[in-house]
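> tool_call: predict_assembly(chains=two)
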Amino acid sequence: MQFTINSLDTNSKARTGTIKTAHGEIPTPIFMPVGTVGSVKGINPRELEQDINAKIILGNTYHLYLRPGLEVIEAAGGLHKFISWDRPILTDSGGYQVFSLAENRKLKPEGAHFRSHIDGSKHFFSPENVMDIQRVIGADIIMAFDECPPGTATYDYAKKSLDLTENWLDRCIKRFDETEPLYNYEQTLFPIVQGCVYPDLRRRAAEFVATKNRDGYAIGGLSVGEPAEVMYQMVEVVNDILPIEKPRYLMGVGTPDNILEAIDRGVDMFDCVMPTRNGRNGMLFTSEGIINIRNKRWSNDFSPIDPQGASFVDQRFTKAYLRHLFISKEMLGPQLASIHNLGFYLWLVGEARRRIEDGTFKGWKDQLVKKLVVRL
RNA sequence: GGGGAGAUACCAAAGUGGCCAACUGGGGCAGACUGUAAAUCUGCUGGCGUACGCCUUCGUAGGUUCGAAUCCUGCUCUCCCCA
């Protein structure tokens, strides 16, 4: 994997760049739709390519390992072939499930013992087997196996957790470097910076991963319950240390204004379930602000879903019709909302790239952030 | 014409003397959601008040009772069966 910086903003830490992978190029800053189980929920891959123009999507090691299982994925020739997606894929390691499925797992130095959320069966994830699993899945970018502590973690816990994550990272790197890809194209491993909301732990974590000389680095353990301002501070602390010539990936973030503020602070990659999950639940991110399409106020609003919208659904369908679909529980409603929201997110990062390159990013960002509050 | 059953909030439907402003479901209204155990979950849904609370409700008009959605009588309406 190669990363080249195309331009640096003079008024902020923002930059544009290009990531080259075996499955194509990714312009940065970029937003990556989440397709946990090998499907961006509700979205046809053709829509993802043509209407949304997603450059890369995510899969999840934990979910794909449980279902359909590695045998099926390997027999299919890897995840790209299995899900018919020829552009880049990034897989998360399952570290986030250590957090979100906390009641079903036990953490030990050697790894995490899990119970499947599907059938309760017992499983074990270690840094080593998570690397092996991600080799089988075959994503272009794979993530280190980490612990993602909650935003409310105490300093003591955060420190112990970071010790564990750093130990696991070394084991991930060792295993990754001594194994080969299964499908004749390059894979790369991104370490993850942890450290909760504690600047000294974040500094230590960033310095630790920076010595590993990988193709890119991730910032994890944010947007997990801490205030947005704290998240921005942590991003600043970490990005001051991470090598400037490597891409930075802020995991699981976030709202459109979170993304803009992080781009401002030098982040290049984002993923989040928000556009799809919240979209399925009726929340629309539009150029006019954030709205709940289920609200009665839209019942007779025959204006386009988003008059300034980038995706074809924005001009073609009205707010009143989309509301009707949601109220009627028609599956088309969540599908259209997901296409719209992902279209908006991809438009957002595309516009950010354009603004960074022509030097108007800062002013544009400040104005848009003000607009991106929930309309009352 | 004769016999029977029933009328409860937006709809459906429990309740058959005090624990009832009234179970439950639907509908309606609003909220939550950040590396997806989510096309999920939560709250409200007679009026006024942040709230203790107060006021008006169970077809309708009366009555019995300390107390009625619940018991009695008249009336109105609906449904079913027979002719």
